[in-house]
């Protein structure tokens, strides 16, 4: 069975704080953010709404995409 990797963007609210991450289990990871299981940035800024994701089969491609997204201007 193939493993998938997800690059995702969470937001605190419309036009709010953004967080970009990567996970091989998007449902579990989103649940962790929403339930404040994940300490740190997302918990501190209440960033828990999944607003975008992309799916990859190759982890290197997912990591490359995550790094590229983090360099973008939020506009």
From TrEMBL:
Pfam family, one: GIY-YIG
Domain annotation GIY-YIG: ranges: 3-75
Family named by the database record: Belongs to the UPF0213 family.
PANTHER family: BSL5627 PROTEIN (PTHR34477:SF5), UPF0213 PROTEIN YHBQ (PTHR34477)
Name of the featured protein: GIY-YIG nuclease family protein
Organism the protein comes from: candidate division NPL-UPA2 bacterium Unc8
